[in-house]
Amino acid sequence: MHTFEHPIIVQLSDIDVMNHVNNVVYVQWVQDAAAAHWNAHAPAEIKTKYNWVVLRHEIDYRSAAVLGDQLIAKTWVDQYEGVKSTRMVQIIRRSDNKILAEAKTTWCLLTAANNRPARVVDEITSVFMKSSASS
């Protein structure tokens, strides 16, 4: 399993009326972590040929993040099946390593030229299913 870590610092714009990070912000962070992982490790020729779209997000909120918290979005690809990929994300507070949220997202691979679903091929799986490495 190839893991990737994406740093996050909670900003004022992330905070809701209850003085903690709004749930919608976690969804954005999940997408940001996935995009950062893809952009950091997919070769340019693959990024030119393919795009990803979200089919489903499942998020379990465990504890609140607050203004100024330093977080890590730890992500990895769990599996591939046909045109779909399942990606896991944990949002972790750096100060105590507490998992604040966990997400499971189903993505669909699209051919960039026509935005049609494309089977996930070895040139992609070989990049993201390697043994553990962080960035």
CATH superfamily: Hotdog Thioesterase
Classify the secondary structure makeup into a structural class. alpha+beta
Based on DSSP secondary structure assignment, what is the total number of beta strands? 6
CATH topology: Thiol Ester Dehydrase, Chain A
How confident is the prediction overall: mean pLDDT? 94
What portion of residues belong to β-strands? 35-45%
In whole angstroms, how far apart are the ends? 14 Å
Based on CA inertia axes, which overall geometry fits? elongated
What is the number of helices?
3
Characteristic key phrases:
single chain, 135 residues, 3 helices, elongated
Give a written overview of the molecule.
24% of the residues lie in helices and 42% in strands. It has 135 residues and is α+β, with helices and mostly antiparallel strands. It has a single domain, classed as Hotdog Thioesterase (Thiol Ester Dehydrase, Chain A), CATH 3.10.129.10.
